[in-house]
Known about the structure:
By secondary structure, the protein is mainly α. It has one domain. The chain has 7 helices and no strands. It has helices spanning 2-29, 31-38, 51-71, 75-85, 87-98, 103-126, 131-137. α1 runs antiparallel to α2 (31-38) and α1 (2-29) packs antiparallel against α3. The radius of gyration is 18 Å and the shape is elongated. The mean pLDDT is 84.
Amino acid sequence: MRRFTTVLTILLGIFPLTFGSQFLFNGLFDGHGAAANFGIDPWPTGTAAGYFAVKGVRDIALGLSILALFALGQRRATGVVLAITTLVPIIDMITVFTHDGSAATALGIHGLTAVVVLFDAVLLLRERRTADDTAQTGETVQPAHS
């Protein structure tokens, strides 16, 4: 299960990097395509189109935060960040619903993302520390109380 959680966490760090980069660059050059991918069409134009950059950078920062904590061996901290990060796809889902977006996109993309991110957060937070983890940090393993 630990290997599954590792792969899922890495993917959940990489996906926002790719989506954020695509949104940032496609939003600057192809606002209509970026809006359709998010679930709101038509997307704002003119000065309001600046939100493409905001969303793109937000996703990139989230992905980098997840990957940085995880790479540093902070599995529990990564779980906490993922649990908090669940708010992002939930708000994205609500935004799509409240701006006449597709229910399929709201639930199928943003809602499902929230469920998967929360699932991974729970897996990380429920992990027990192993001797290998503590060898890296120099801490001692405390027996689990039952």
